[in-house]
Amino acid sequence: MSGLIVVGVTGDPVSHRTVDWAVARAAENHQRIELVAVVGGAMGTVGEADVVIDARAAAQKMLDLAAERVAGRGVDITTRVDNGNPVAKLIDASASANLLVIGSDYTGPGSGPARGMHGVRIAAGAACPVVVVPDLELGARSGIVVGVDGSEVSERAIRFAAAEADRLGEPLIACAVWTPLQAPRNGMAVYPELYLTNMQAATEEILALSLAGIAADYPDVKVIRRVERGYPSHVLNELAASARLAVVGTHGRGAIARFLLGSISQEVLARLATVTAVVR
């Protein structure tokens, strides 16, 4: 990976937050920024060439203004305008990036699910971690929340989250969630106490094993362990509502289905509670 952060920029208001987040991280990590705008929708019809030229000029002006606004923060910033499908172009750009940062139009509870820049498909197909920035005033928040399920991709999410916690001087809140077996015959959700106790204990063990080595590698990071009963995306978003960053993992898929996220990470992105990183 390079020391490059690619930022998808649109004309949406959230792009200001997206660029600011990426530039702040780049300044702390001594990374470069590339601001990318994509002009999409061209079909090759007669007379379209002039429209594309005007659209590219407008996109370049937008990028120039964004770069000018954050100039002087000690970050090397370049800009690029592409033509084509925005999802495909940003996924292509992720191949040479350390991080891809995009915005979401989600503005909080009551605003409906996030649509953003086709964020779910981009996060699923990108070759590097993707950070999705919601259109929220985050204010004073603390903690880096990471979802843990014991999988290999979860291990990578933990490592990403621990590195961010170490860099920012924030506690790492590692959360594993267990959900009782659902069955029509058990519609009243009455479970034997032994079953509930064993589910809690098994999840605690998964969390402990997943965090092995973190204390040695990041001795200055305070680790808070949370094992909760519930539905994973709901629990994670509740914790993320007061956190500085949330991190979730998504399992890699085959070429045909690579634009699909796992259900949990997709649900987390649909109702962002904070800036959220998706790690494969």
Task: Explain how this protein is built.
Residues 252-260 have low confidence and may be disordered. The protein has 9 helices and 10 strands. Strands 3-2-1-4-5-10-9-6-7-8 form a 10-stranded mixed β-sheet, with helices on both faces. It has helices spanning 14-29, 48-69, 86-94, 119-125, 152-168, 193-210, 214-217, 232-240, 263-270; strands spanning 4-8, 32-39, 77-83, 99-103, 130-133, 144-147, 172-178, 223-229, 245-249, 276-279. The protein has 2 domains: 1-137, 3-Layer(aba) Sandwich (Rossmann fold), CATH 3.40.50.620; 138-280, 3-Layer(aba) Sandwich (Rossmann fold), CATH 3.40.50.620. It is α/β, with parallel strands linked by helices and 280 residues long.
Largest beta-sheet characterization: 10 strands, mixed
Strand content: 15-25%
CATH fold description of the largest domain: Rossmann fold
Give the CATH H-level superfamily of the largest domain: HUPs
Residues in helix, %: 25-40%
Shape: globular
Low-pLDDT ranges: 252-260
CA(first)-CA(last) distance: 14 Å
Rounded radius of gyration (Å): 20 Å
Architecture (CATH level 2) name of the largest domain = 3-Layer(aba) Sandwich
As laid out across the biggest beta sheet, the strand order is 3-2-1-4-5-10-9-6-7-8
What is the name of the CATH class of the largest domain?
Alpha Beta
Helix/strand-derived category reads alpha/beta
DSSP summary, beta strand count: 10
So how many helices? 9
Mean pLDDT: 88
Topology:
Layout: E1 4-8, H1 14-29, E2 32-39, H2 48-69, E3 77-83, H3 86-94, E4 99-103, H4 119-125, E5 130-133, E6 144-147, H5 152-168, E7 172-178, H6 193-210, H7 214-217, E8 223-229, H8 232-240, E9 245-249, H9 263-270, E10 276-279
Parallel strand pairs: 1-2, 1-4, 2-3, 4-5, 6-7, 6-9, 7-8, 9-10
Antiparallel strand pairs: 5-10
Helix pairs in contact: 3-4, 8-9
